[in-house]
Amino acid sequence: MVQPQEPNKDWADPRVTGFGNFTETIHHKPGSTLQSLISLPPRYNVRVIGASRGISVDIARSYAKADTNTIILAARNTQQLQDLASQVAQINPGCVVHSVKCDITSAFSVHDLAAFTHEKLGQEGKHLNTVIVNSGYANNRELNVTEGNAIHEFWAQSFAINTFSTYHVAHYMVYSQGHCVSIGI
């Protein structure tokens, strides 16, 4: 069993203790009910936001393995999106893959992503089944409340990505009548 670690003392608030060990880890491998080879219903369509790296890459690959009909990949880094689109196409040659540059902190960019999705899927007589929002930001500093600036760039960036972006996605994706999964940090 992996022992929890205390936070890095170089940046952590000294008033916060026991953060890494407040609950015991009791699992060592996935449970028996987790099935890795699930097949989705026909014509299943997914959008993965924050798809340029991290967990989202594996989420997109997993949907490709599950025989998803269409995957729309969205993130700010177009080169990483193109690389992932190629991987998805290799995993599932029958899957239609779209890569769209999107900054989810911008309501205009999310609106454009929603319009693109509606147009592309509508042309093919499809609808969006699932939206995965896997974008998050946490800086490596913890500021004392009484120090620094209330509009410090790290706080503002965290709030824009972790709060406003989730709102933008929910606001512009309601029409899809699909499921929205938000994965936060």
Automatic annotation (TrEMBL):
Record bears the keyword Oxidoreductase: yes
Keywords: Oxidoreductase
SUPFAM superfamilies, per the entry: NAD(P)-binding Rossmann-fold domains
Pfam families reported for this sequence: adh_short
One MF annotation (Gene Ontology) recorded for this entry: oxidoreductase activity
Organism superkingdom: Eukaryota
Family: Belongs to the short-chain dehydrogenases/reductases (SDR) family.
PANTHER family the UniProt entry points to: DEHYDROGENASE/REDUCTASE SDR FAMILY MEMBER 11, DEHYDROGENASE_REDUCTASE SDR FAMILY MEMBER 11
Name of the protein: Uncharacterized protein
Organism: Fusarium oligoseptatum
